[in-house]
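Run log, item B.
One chain of 103 residues. Sequence copied directly from the ordering sheet:
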Amino acid sequence: MAKEVNKTEKIAYRILVEPWITEEATRIGELNKYIFKVAKGADKKEIKKAIEEIYGVTVLSVNTVTIPAKKRMRGAKAGWKTGHKKAIITVKEGDKIELFENK
């Protein structure tokens, strides 16, 4: 039987778009810091609550970075690469967020 998702968890899943997985993100993961792409309108309190609710860890701090949209050219056509918002989450020593599940 599928796990029922309550209303607050649905909101939490809308705030956290996806984990940000790069070499740098993997390296700072050893320092109990994790990077997530988040909704543009989310504030630090909402992000902290969503992380604690979904992953069951204690969040010590949340730092956010807003990446602006950038103009890109493809041949003679101009376009825009969309901007986004990232959150760098610091969790309590001993807590861990499993981004890759071994199945």
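Observations after the first pass:
- Residues 49 and 100 are 21 Å apart (CA to CA).
- The chain is about 25% helix and 35% strand.
Flagged for discussion on Thursday.
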